[in-house]
Amino acid sequence: MKSLDMAHVVARVGPEVVLAGDLMTPTAAEWIKKVSPGLRPEQITELRYKIYQQVIDQHLEMLLVYVDACRVIPEENFPEIREKVNEAFDQEQLPQMVQAAGVGSVHEYEHLLRSQGQSLSRMRKMFFERALAQEWIQQNANTTGEIPHAEMIAWYQNHLDEYEFPARARFEQLTVRISQKQPRDQSWNRLAAMGNDVLSGRPFEEVAKELSEGPTASSGGLYEWTTQGSLVSDVIDKAIFSLPVGELSAILDDQNALHIVRVIERSDAGRTPFIDAQVAIRMSLRKQRQDNARKEYLDGLKARTPIWTVFDDKQKNTQIAERPSVTR
User: Fold this and answer.
1) Is 157 inside any structural domain?
2) Coarse DSSP helix, strand, coil percentages of the chain, rounded to the nearest 5 percent
3) H/E element holding 23?
4) Does residue 191 fall inside a structural domain?
5) 89-126: b or e for each residue (b if 16 or more CB lie within 10 Å)?
6) Nearest C-alpha neighbor of 245 from the set 225, 221, 261
7) Each residue of 31-88: pLDDT tens digit?
8) Dihedral sign from CA coordinates of 92, 94, 100, 103
9) CB-hemisphere CA count at 13 Å for 168?
10) Domain identity same for 213 and 179
11) For the chain, how many structural domains are there in total?
């Protein structure tokens, strides 16, 4: 596989070229440097290819918008735009980059970039392209206007299942396991004694910590909010969603163990009303509009802008190599 240096052309978007260095961030370059010792040149090249493939689609999308902006914005406006964006880069972005790189000055950062095959001028250029593209797509793929109330209600009615919520409960549990060493009648008597302790006024938590054999005994037998139908034990599940809140259950037998439970609090199953859901629905519909407008705008750009990447050739060569030969 041909080695890619930072100046190698890996893609074209209309009149703009994408160099390998445009896709290799300083962080990625530093990672390559750390893992390279001991690797063969072709293995390092393969790692670079994988990094380029991960980021190239996003970069091409940005460049598509940038090319469209350059096509429409009058050329005489660019010096002023570039001056403002460069000022933002120098005052806001560059200090953050220097700090993230762990160096003490812009001069040291420039030296670090050069050691990675990068340059500050390239960082500034890429920042300008991204900033202009972001501003341009906001102007061309922006959706304004309120979401009609009827549309929000229709969404709610068509997604009612998303607003359903199950019953849930918080409860305490005392458990005694049944085993050969501790048969059922013995387990029953032990658990009954625990229940009597609680009925006599001893704190449930204290009894559970000292005597219970349940999975939450160490935390006083407490089970935090539990949804109906989520417990392994059907017997316990039915009990905690039918018992009056605050009352001890009778002894429950689920074959493997015996239990006593007490519900602390419980909320019934229900559905979030539209009035409580409408803010989130409005945000969801607005985002859907924005995503659709963005996709429509980008699809239009892709249809009228030629795009080529080095991976197109790679895929074509792979398809040719995999095509079965024909013997005449």
Assistant:
1) no
2) 60, 15, 25
3) helix 20-23
4) yes
5) beeebbeebbeeeeeeeeeebbebbeebebebeebbeb
6) 261
7) 888 888 988 988 988 888 888 889 999 999 999 999 999 999 999 999 999 999 999 9
8) negative
9) 10
10) yes
11) 2
DSSP 167: -
Same domain for 127 and 53: yes
Domain shared by 65 and 138, yes or no: yes
Same domain (yes/no): 183, 245: yes
Q: Considering only CA atoms, which of 106, 103, 102, 105 is closest in space to residue 123?
A: 106
Q: Which neighbouring-strand residues pair with 263?
A: 171
Q: Are residues 48 and 120 in the same domain?
A: yes
The answer to whether position 158 is within a domain reads no
| Alpha-helical regions (H) of the chain | 20-23, 26-35, 41-72, 78-88, 94-101, 106-115, 120-140, 149-158, 184-199, 204-211, 234-240, 274-304, 310-322
Phi-psi region of 105 (alpha: psi -120 to 50; beta: other; left: phi over 0): beta
Question: Based on the domain organization, do 254 and 298 belong to the same domain?
Answer: no
How many CB atoms are located within 10 Å of the residue 228 CB? 16
pLDDT tens by residue, 115-137: 877 889 989 999 999 999 999 99
Supply the Cα-derived Rg of the chain in whole angstroms.
33
Residue 255 near residue 242 (C-beta atoms within 8 A): no
DSSP reduced 3-state for 57: helix
The verdict on 140 and 171 lying in the same domain is: no
- On the CB side of 115, how many CA atoms lie within 13 Å of its CA? 11
Let me know if residue 198 belongs to a domain: yes
- 132 and 196, same structural domain? no
pTM above 0.85, yes or no: no
Count of CB atoms situated within 10 Å of the CB of 76: 7
For 85, the domain range is: 9-144+290-322
